């Protein structure tokens, strides 16, 4: 407890690491599930509130440094969610969704902002994210090799880490965060530390590939390019040219006409997602259409938090499947209902209306603008990945707590550039100067 009082960012790190605890058997029909990481996030919020309200004269930071003015960017998100709750026809159904929205997009990011105050704090939280990514990646690789992961094409070869088949995107998200932080470190460091950081980022791409998550691959590629542009436009141009040349060789080189393996087929399916979508992509398009139909009947404040699942059948096209099949050694075979549109922007639009979508986009866009202006590759890359990820996914599952910590870390980097190591536009990564 004494160490926690001296270094409150340890609570944020613990919140991240606790998401790595095996989820155990889960039932898709279960309601709100509270995990150890959720409880840790409550402790983090309580600790941050205590720090923010403390008025001791010996406090090492002035009040403005404890809660920077840029924290106000979170206020519209809380306000829009509150309005959607009050306007909901079923307030009791919407209340858990409202609380979840506050936890993920307001309270935990604000708590991380309060507790991450200097370079050491940035290292503590960033190190926890990289450590969680390494652990999840290792477990995922073992799953893919031994056939103990989630089922794909009739085989349990999909790497999902400790999150299980019911949170199939969890491992891919955590591994992506770790890879981007290591890439940021590699861009800033020199010598052996640069080699180690870039090597670690490359190694994390292995479990990410084995996750078979097409969206995560595209998001990591886009985020990496954003980081390179923010760091150095000349370096970004060279990397893009080399990447284009390598892609040309792979397409035109020997073996282009051979029968691709599982990973190759998954990669090739990206280009056919529009012309010849598979069932999962087709269902996603149907869910997107359902979300827009819900929004058309509730344009300003939405149908209410957590009400998309209740209204889905009334608005869904006939092509939508009743659910998707999941299978892993822990949970066995289960039929999982499709209860969200798998698009954070459309989920917000349908449940919180134009007010909610405008608040969410304004929050993310403001942080992105600050990250680019201050030349913070880590913050820009993490925000780019999250922005792309929200195009094909939304919040849900144990890994959501990690997302909220990442948003708080980004806000800390752009709101306190001097304390976290970005003073005067001099780039550093994870709190270590060039």
UniProtKB/TrEMBL annotation:
InterPro entries in the record: O-antigen_ligase-rel_domated, WaaL-like
Transmembrane portions of the chain: 66-85, 97-116, 123-145, 165-189, 201-229, 235-256, 354-376, 396-415
Coiled coil: none
Domain of life: Bacteria
Topology term for the membrane: Multi-pass membrane protein
Leader sequence segment: 1-25
Keywords, in A-Z order: Ligase, Membrane, Signal, Transmembrane, Transmembrane helix
Compartments it resides in: Membrane
Any one GO molecular-function label of the UniProt entry: ligase activity
Start and end residues of each O-antigen ligase-related domain: 201-360
Gene Ontology CC terms, in alphabetical order: membrane
Main location: membrane
Pfam families assigned to the protein according to its UniProt record, in alphabetical order: Wzy_C
Protein name per its UniProtKB record: O-antigen ligase
Protein source organism: Nonomuraea jabiensis
């Amino acid at each position: 407890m004494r160490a926690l009082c001296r270094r409150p960012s340890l609570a944020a790190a613990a919140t991240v690491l606790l998401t790595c605890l095996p989820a155990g058997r889960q039932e898709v029909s279960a309601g709100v599930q509270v995990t150890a990481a959720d409880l840790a996030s409550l402790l983090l919020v309580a600790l941050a509130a205590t720090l923010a309200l403390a008025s001791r004269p010996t406090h090492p930071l002035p009040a403005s440094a404890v809660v920077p003015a840029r924290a106000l960017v979170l206020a519209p998100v809380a306000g829009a969610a509150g309005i959607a709750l009050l306007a909901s026809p079923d307030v009791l159904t919407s209340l858990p969704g409202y609380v979840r929205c506050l936890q993920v997009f307001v309270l935990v990011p604000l708590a991380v902002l309060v507790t991450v105050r200097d370079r050491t704090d940035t290292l503590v939280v960033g190190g926890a994210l990289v450590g969680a990514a390494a652990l999840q990646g290792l477990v995922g690789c073992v799953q893919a090799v031994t056939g103990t992961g989630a089922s794909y094409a009739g085989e349990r070869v999909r790497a999902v880490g400790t999150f299980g088949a019911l949170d199939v995107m969890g491992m891919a998200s955590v591994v992506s965060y770790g890879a981007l932080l290591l890439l940021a470190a590699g861009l800033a460091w020199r010598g052996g530390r640069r080699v180690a950081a870039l090597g670690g980022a490359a190694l994390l791409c292995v479990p990410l590939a084995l996750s078979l998550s097409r969206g995560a691959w595209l998001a990591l590629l886009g985020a990496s390019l954003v980081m390179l542009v923010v760091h150095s436009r000349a370096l970004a141009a060279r990397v893009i040219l080399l990447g284009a040349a390598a892609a040309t060789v792979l397409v035109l080189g020997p073996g282009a006409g051979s029968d691709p393996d599982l990973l190759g087929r998954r990669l090739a399916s990206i280009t056919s997602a529009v012309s010849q979508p598979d069932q999962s992509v087709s269902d996603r398009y149907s869910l997107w259409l359902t979300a827009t139909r819900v929004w058309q009947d509730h344009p300003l404040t939405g149908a209410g938090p957590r009400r998309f699942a209740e209204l889905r059948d009334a608005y869904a096209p006939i092509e939508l499947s009743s659910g998707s099949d999941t299978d892993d050694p822990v949970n066995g075979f289960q039929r999982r209902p499709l209860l969200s549109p798998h698009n954070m922007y459309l989920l917000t639009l349908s449940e919180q209306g134009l007010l909610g979508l405008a608040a969410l986009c304004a929050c993310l866009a403001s942080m992105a603008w600050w990250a680019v202006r201050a030349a913070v590759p880590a913050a820009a890359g993490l925000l780019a990945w999250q922005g792309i990820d929200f195009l094909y996914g939304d919040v849900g599952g144990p890994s959501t707590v990690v997302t909220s910590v990442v948003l708080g870390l980004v806000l800390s980097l752009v709101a306190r550039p001097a304390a976290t190591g970005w003073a005067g536009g001099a780039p550093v990564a994870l709190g270590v100067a060039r």
